[in-house]
Amino acid sequence: MRVIFVADRFYPLIGGGEKYVLSIASGLAERGHDVHVLTSSVPGRPQLEVLRCGLKVLRIKPIFHVRDIPILPLLKFVSSDAEIIHISGPSLNEDVICPFLKALNHKVVSTYHADFIMENMLVTTYYVMKAHLTYRFVDKIIVTTVRYAEILKRRGVPSEKISVIPIGVNEEIFKPAKNEERVLLRERYGIKGKIVLFVGCLDRKHAYKHPEILLKSFKSLIKDKKFAEARLIMVGGGELIKYYQKFSEGVGISKRVSFLGRVSM
Q: Any residues with CB less than 8 A from the CB of 108 and at least 6 apart, and which?
């Protein structure tokens, strides 16, 4: 089976959506399917790359950008014999390409990861229009939570088009630490007492997750005697780390927050 994945961003860039596409696409490639990823170009990476699992990655130079979102000339790279085209969204690229893919009788699947930057009426209107227009041309929409299934239904997406498929966990990598490992980690980072842990990218693309809310909430939490000694551990790299450090100073909790940057597994 030939499958094409379309993603605005992809490995080696870091993020939940990037990891999601890499995991599914490489898993299908390992099972013997002919799998291609169409994505935006990345400095220092070749235009065409074949990963060890046999996954083929084509990095395309964007036509232009809309708020850091690359708009790609995808149609000339979509193979006519692709049996499934999977789009990682919501994305402006799917708004452009989906009507053409449907006209060409392609089977199109879109994963709706989340609503991004729901801060004003214009953006809210965009998501409503996407539900009514773009998703008319999509055969199936995958959401990772029941909540997003309900959101799309309220916006007018037919329930039969939506499938809830939670994101899986690789238990060989993510497993409870042994007691001695916990002790060593606490010693390494000088942590005592209870821990509040944040793991995520601290960059502009993921600013919609608003770590500021967590920082302000943590200030309220440590007023409770049960959490008086708690520390907030922020794990993740990105160009906004200094901004969040300054923000933590502004709310008066900088001595209780540790920014560890990117931590390798």
A: 84, 85, 86, 87, 98, 101, 102, 137, 138, 139, 140
Helical spans, DSSP H, in 190-255: 211-221, 241-250
Q: Enumerate the β-bridge partners of residue 49.
A: 57
This prediction has a pTM of 0.86
Closest residue by Cα to residue 72 from 49, 96, 55: 96
Query: DSSP readout, 42-66?
Result: -TTS-SEEE-TTS-EEEEE--SEEE
DSSP-derived letter for residue 84 is E
Q: What pLDDT sits at residue 123?
A: 82
Number of residues that this document lists for the chain:
265
Are 232 and 214 in contact by the 8 Å Cβ rule? The answer is yes
Rounded to 10 degrees, the C-alpha dihedral 93/79/4/115 comes to: 10
What is the pLDDT, as a whole number, of residue 50?
96
Show the DSSP H helices in 35-171 as ranges.
92-103, 121-132, 146-154
Q: Residue 134: how many CB atoms within 10 A of its CB?
A: 22
User: Cα separation of 82 and 122, whole Å?
Assistant: 35
Write the DSSP symbol of residue 222.
T
What is the predicted pLDDT for the residue at 118? 56
- What parts of the chain have a pLDDT lower than 70? 117-119, 265
Contacts by residues 24-29 (CB-CB < 8 Å, ≥ 24 positions apart): 24/86, 25/55, 26/51, 26/53, 26/55, 28/1, 28/3, 29/53, 29/54, 29/55
Q: Are 259 and 247 in contact (CB under 8 A)?
A: no
Q: Is 34 helix (H, G, I), strand (E, B) or coil?
A: strand
**Kind of pairing, strands 34-40 and 56-60?**
parallel
pLDDT in tens, 48-69: 999 989 999 999 999 999 888 8
- pLDDT tens digits, one per residue of 72-97: 999 989 988 899 999 999 999 999 99
